[in-house]
């Protein structure tokens, strides 16, 4: 996102004021209500379609009046390499919830990328593949908004252990809200069970962390849940949540 100096300063102030107002123990519902009250419909919710927990919480917590009666906008990064189950979950979420899906695609199809940069860039240079198919498209898609909401949780990985509830996203230049950041795995699962939330069928099939199909395998028994992502390499993040 390209912001002017004035916009950036204002958004930094909003993030700092929000974090101070709500404090470190704010609930997901409080964070989402604050987001809608602060930004109106000038924010978007990012969902990776591993489950619909964030969408479900948001649909219950956000007053339609706060977003001027418009549908919640949900962003999905369609990399061209997703499991069919992930795309099916995306379509099911759209059917279940009254939302506006923003399906974001890279500039090149996988075939075009293969032709331009060599076959299977995800294998030869996974960082560049993620940059082209995730980071660059997301940066463009976030440009119209002043804030984005993600489902990042601190327990997911050491790189996310200090994820704030509200911050200014240095990478994309807008306010970032992580309503579920403090949720434990038990709390997360309890919410799914209590509300009958849709979950990607791959989770029950042994994939606790789901990314693009060529770069995701089932973790070994007892291994870190994210060890199945970019298995065999030192890569642990795609670059979307660098701040």
Describe the protein's architecture and organization.
It contains 9 helices and 6 strands. It has 243 residues and is of the alpha/beta class. A 6-stranded mixed sheet has the order 3-2-1-4-6-5. β2, α4 and β3 (99-104) form a beta-alpha-beta unit. The two termini are 14 Å apart. The relative contact order is 0.18. The mean pLDDT is 91. Belongs to the PAPS reductase family. CysH subfamily. Residues 46-217 form the Phosphoadenosine phosphosulphate reductase domain. [4Fe-4S] cluster binds at residues 129-130, 212, 215.
Task: Give the structure's gist in a few sentences.
This protein is α/β, with parallel strands linked by helices and 243 residues long. It is built from 9 helices and 6 strands, in the order H-H-E-H-E-H-E-H-H-H-E-E-E-H-H. The two termini are 14 Å apart.
- Total beta-strand segments: 6
Strand content: 5-15%
**Overall radius of gyration:** 18 Å
Net shape: globular
Question: How would you sum up the major sheet?
Answer: 6 strands, mixed
Counted by DSSP, the helix tally is 9
Biggest sheet strand line-up: 3-2-1-4-6-5
Q: List unreliable stretches of 5+ residues.
A: none
Q: What structural category arises from helix and sheet content?
A: alpha/beta
SSE sequence, one letter per element: HHEHEHEHHHEEEHH
Helix fraction by DSSP (H/I, runs of at least 4): 25-40%
Please tell me the overall pLDDT: 91
Distance between the termini: 14 Å
Cofactor: [4Fe-4S] cluster
Family: Belongs to the PAPS reductase family. CysH subfamily.
Catalytic activity: [thioredoxin]-disulfide + sulfite + AMP + 2 H(+) = adenosine 5'-phosphosulfate + [thioredoxin]-dithiol
GO molecular function: phosphoadenylyl-sulfate reductase (thioredoxin) activity
């Amino acid at each position: 996102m390209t912001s002017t100096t004035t916009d950036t300063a204002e958004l930094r102030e909003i993030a700092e004021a929000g974090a101070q107002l709500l404090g470190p123990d704010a609930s997901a519902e409080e964070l989402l209500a604050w987001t809608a009250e602060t930004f109106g419909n000038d924010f978007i919710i990012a969902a990776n379609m591993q489950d619909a927990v964030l969408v479900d919480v948001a649909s219950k917590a956000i007053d339609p009046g706060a977003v001027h009666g418009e549908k919640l906008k949900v962003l999905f990064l369609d990399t061209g390499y997703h499991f069919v189950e992930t795309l099916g979950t995306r379509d099911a979420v759209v059917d279940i919830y009254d939302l506006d899906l923003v399906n974001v695609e890279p500039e090149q199809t996988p075939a075009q990328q293969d032709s331009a940069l060599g076959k299977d860039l995800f294998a030869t240079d996974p960082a560049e593949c993620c940059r082209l198919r995730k980071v660059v498209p997301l940066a463009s898609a976030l440009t119209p908004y002043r804030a984005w909401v993600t489902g990042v949780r601190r327990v997911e990985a050491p790189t996310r252990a200090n994820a704030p509830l509200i911050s200014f996203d240095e990478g994309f230049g807008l306010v970032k809200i992580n309503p579920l950041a403090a949720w434990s795995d038990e709390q997360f699962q309890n919410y799914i069970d209590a509300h009958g939330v849709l979950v990607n069928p791959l989770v029950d099939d042994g994939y606790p962390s789901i990314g693009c199909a060529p770069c995701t395998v089932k973790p070994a028994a007892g291994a870190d849940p994210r060890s199945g992502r970019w298995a065999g390499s030192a890569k642990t993040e795609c670059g979307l949540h660098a701040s």
